[in-house]
């Protein structure tokens, strides 16, 4: 799964993936980040096909996006 988001200002960023029951299944980023575009690839292992939620906490707010995992 290719993930892209923009960090508007320098600060702490935490990006997590949750399953539909709200359980965190992956932490993709957790720490200080420079301002700019972020691109990453999430290669989920041992997860079932289905809908997941990406939550990115940025210095100026939170962004959420649905992800569909199909193999």
Task: Describe this structure as you would to a colleague.
The chain is mainly beta and 71 residues long. Helix content is 0%, strand content 68%. The chain is built from no helices and 6 strands. The strands form 2 sheets. Strands 3-2-5-6 form a 4-stranded antiparallel sheet, with no helix packed on it. The model has no long low-confidence stretch (mean pLDDT 94).
Q: Biggest sheet, open or closed, and with what strands and sense?
A: 4 strands, antiparallel
Number of helices: 0
Low-confidence stretches: none
Shape: elongated
Estimate what percentage of residues fall within beta strands. Answer: over 45%
Percentage of helical residues? under 10%
Given helix and strand content, the structural type is: mainly beta
How are strands sequenced across the largest beta sheet?
3-2-5-6
Question: Notable features of this structure?
Answer:
71 residues; mainly beta; 4-stranded antiparallel beta sheet; two-stranded antiparallel sheet; 6 strands
Outline:
The chain contains no helices and six strands.
Describe the protein's topology.
Elements: E1 2-7, E2 11-18, E3 24-33, E4 36-41, E5 50-58, E6 61-69
Antiparallel strand pairs: 1-4, 2-3, 2-5, 5-6
């Amino acid at each position: 799964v290719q993930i892209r988001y923009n960090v508007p200002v320098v600060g702490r960023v935490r990006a997590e993936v949750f399953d539909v029951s709200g359980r965190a299944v992956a932490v993709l980023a957790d720490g200080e980040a420079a301002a700019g575009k972020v691109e990453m690839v999430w290669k989920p292992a041992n997860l079932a096909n289905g809908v997941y939620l990406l939550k990115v906490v940025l210095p100026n707010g939170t962004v959420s996006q649905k992800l569909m995992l199909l193999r």
